[in-house]
Amino acid sequence: MANDAPRRPLQSAVALTYKNDSPAPKVVAKGRGLVAEQIIHVANEHGVHIHESKELVSLLMDVDLDRQIPPALYRTIAELLAWLYHIESAQKSGQPPPPAPDTSSPLRDQEEQ
Predict the structure, then answer these.
(1) pLDDT computed for residue 103 by the predictor
(2) SS3 42
(3) Which residue windows are transmembrane per the record (predicted)?
């Protein structure tokens, strides 16, 4: 018996970490389907903010685990880190969170040069 229910597209997720003494953020987890769901679940459990960007995730999926993000993504990831900082500041002060940065074209800076 065939299931005629529409199938949800296969979800992908990437987790990054950044330490102040590190030159760039690193990819610490990535996956599709159930692995992606688990990454998102663990992030939610630990209060980690999640930003959805299919374009950015697609580019980050090409980065090997425990490797730094490529220089072409530095600006986009820096904007996300700044956004997360502002979210945390807003939460502490009771202010509304800022809007998420536009990451729909993560390589826009490369294209403009």
Answers:
(1) 79
(2) helix
(3) none
